[in-house]
Amino acid sequence: MIPSAAVEERLARRPDAIRGMFAAIAPRYDLLNRLLSLRQDVRWRRRLVAALAAAPAGAVLDLATGTGDVAFAISGREVTGADFCVDMLALARAKARRRRRVRWAAADGLALPFADGAFAAVTVAFGVRNFADLALGLAEIRRVLAPAGVLAILEFQRPTRSAVRLAMRAWNRLVVEPLGSLLSRDPAAYAYLPASVETFPGAGELARAVEAAGFASAFSRELSGGIVALTVARAPGREAA
Length: 241
Hints:
By secondary structure, the protein is of the alpha/beta class. The protein has one domain: Vaccinia Virus protein VP39 (Rossmann fold, 3-Layer(aba) Sandwich), CATH 3.40.50. Helix content is 45%, strand content 20%. The protein has a seven-stranded mixed sheet with strand order 3-2-1-4-5-7-6, sandwiched between helices. Helix 7 links the parallel strand 4 (119-125) and strand 5 (145-156). The chain is globular, with a radius of gyration of 17 Å. The relative contact order is 0.17.
C-alpha cells in the first residue's frame, strides 16, 4: 500500500522531499516515462524543442533537465542542462558519453547560478509543477533570459474534457500507480505524480502566472487531448532577429 503521508509531504513541494524522490526513482525514470506515457513523452518533448525556433540566436538552458532527454534533442545551439537532483544529472552525464555534448549544472530553479540575460531560451519539461514557489521560479527564469528570449514549458494538467479526465484518472489508478510502485524504488512517487497534477494550475492559470512574472504574449496549447499543455512565452525586449 502506498503511504499517503509520503504523498502529502511531497505535495507541500519541500525541496528536500522532492529531491529525495527523484534520487530514488532516477534509475528507472526513463523506462517508466516511456511505459507510462506509451512513448508519448517523446512526441511531447519534440513539440517543446520545436518552440525554440521562435527564440533569438544564443544558448539554451534546459531547466529540471532530469536525465537530459530535452537537452540532447536541442540542436544547433549551446545547451546547458540544469537540475537540483545530482542523481538525475549523473545519469544524464552517463548518457552524454554516447550523445552530443551538453554542459551540466547542479542548480536550484529558485536560485539559478547564471548571469542575467545569459540564455536566449529556457525549456522546462515536467519541472515547474514541483517548484516550491512557482512565482519565484518563473522570476528566476525571466532573469536569466535575454531580451526577447523564449520560455517553453511542457507540463501535465487536469484535462478540461470530462471523458479525457475520467480516462486519465482510471489510467493513473490502474496503471501509473501500480506499475510505478512495482518498478521504482519509491512506491509513493507515482502516486505523487497524479496528485501533484490535481493541485497545480491548469494551462490557462499557468500562462497567467508566466505573464505576471514579466513575460509577454504567453499562450498554451493542449496536447494529447489536454493531458499535457505546452506553454510558450517571450521575455520583453527587442524583437527577435
